[in-house]
Design a protein that fits this description.
About 30% of the residues lie in helices and about 20% in strands. The chain is built from nine helices and 14 strands.
Length: about 325
């Protein structure tokens, strides 16, 4: 049976690619899921332009507050509601601003569509800020829509992605479905019987690219030397380990920041930022995935995306849950 999917806050389509499946990453094929996206939308026109370069079904440029899906039926609803209000790298965060309340819009659409399952994603700060009161409020709102809700923080590196990226996932199963959802078990780890973490080196094909625009100036390097020793500066990544978290502002990365950079040559004190294609690979996008707009547009879309491989594993777990539910109903 084909599962119909509604995608909110779809961005350039990282989550949607994982939901659909049928792509290759690091020589592994992530098989296609039996899914069909019947609605996808985002308010970012450039992200939607990228989405429409990569999928046969169209996404719409639309603010979720203007969206009405009353009468639409779907099996699954997904959405990574905007996280700036809860980000740990945002010093001016205000959880009460309009972006911090968009989970209420997601709940409104859930009430209209009544999917069998929904997935909501956000930064870890959403779970921790205010002692968890914002997460508790969201869970209570989703439960009031008629769902059994679970949540868990997942690390992308645990699922074969070369990035230490922790995100909160909230999964709701409609209360009349008598089946408990189980989050996917990690496939990779630092020790034990799991496969080792995928190192950053797997997606860095050329440590010293030809284009000079990705390199930091000697003036920038000199500035780092003057920084206090206790400050996290020039965070050169160990190619033998997963990368630190990729963010949406990679176009504005400096050596005087907490963003990950590459050390090309220690003798020449040569540092650089990631190229957009490298950033996309760190997020587990296949090489065939295209991005519309400038480098800055691509960085923003990539940094805001849910890693496709991580969402693929979540979709696999949801498929098992719904399949078990269907078998129980048949019995």
């Amino acid at each position: 049976m084909t599962l119909d999917v509604v995608s909110l806050f779809s961005g350039c389509g990282g989550a949607d690619l994982g939901i659909i499946g049928g792509f290759n990453f690091l020589r592994r094929n992530y098989r296609a899921h039996n899914t069909r996206i019947i609605h996808a939308s985002d308010f970012d026109a450039k992200a939607v332009a990228s989405y429409n370069l990569n999928f046969s079904h169209p996404a719409r440029v639309l603010d979720v507050r203007d969206l009405n899906l009353d009468g639409t039926e779907a099996d699954l609803l997904i959405g990574g509601f905007p996280c700036q209000s809860f980000s740990t790298v945002n010093p001016t965060k205000d959880p009460t601003d309009s972006r911090g309340q968009l989970y209420l819009e997601m709940a409104r659409v859930i009430q209209q569509v009544k999917p069998r399952v929904f997935i909501a994603e956000n930064v870890v700060g959403f779970a921790r800020l205010g002692g968890g009161k914002y997460l508790n409020a969201a869970v209570a709102e989703f439960e009031s829509c008629g769902y059994v809700v679970q949540y868990q923080i997942l690390n992308a590196a645990d699922y074969g992605i070369p990035q230490l990226r922790k995100r909160l996932f909230i999964v709701g199963v409609r209360s009349n479905i008598k089946q408990t959802f189980q989050f996917p078990e990690p496939t990779h780890g630092e020790a034990g019987e799991l496969r080792s973490y995928v190192p950053l080196s797997r997606v860095i094909e050329n440590l010293e690219p030809r284009d000079p625009k990705y390199f930091f100036s000697q003036r920038a390097v000199a500035g780092v030397k003057r920084a206090k020793k206790n400050m996290k500066r020039a965070l050169a990544q160990d190619l033998k380990k997963p990368c630190l978290t990729i963010t949406s502002h990679l176009a504005k990365v400096s050596l005087n920041s907490r963003d990950p950079v590459l050390l090309v040559d220690s003798r020449r004190e040569l540092y650089r930022r990631f190229t957009p294609r490298e950033a996309a690979s760190i997020q587990s996008f296949p090489k065939s995935f295209k991005f519309a707009g400038s480098d800055a547009d691509a960085y923003r879309q990539i940094g805001n995306a849910i890693p496709p491989v991580l969402m693929w594993h979540l979709m696999d777990a949801i498929s098992r849950c719904l399949s078990s539910s269907s078998q129980s109903s048949a019995a």
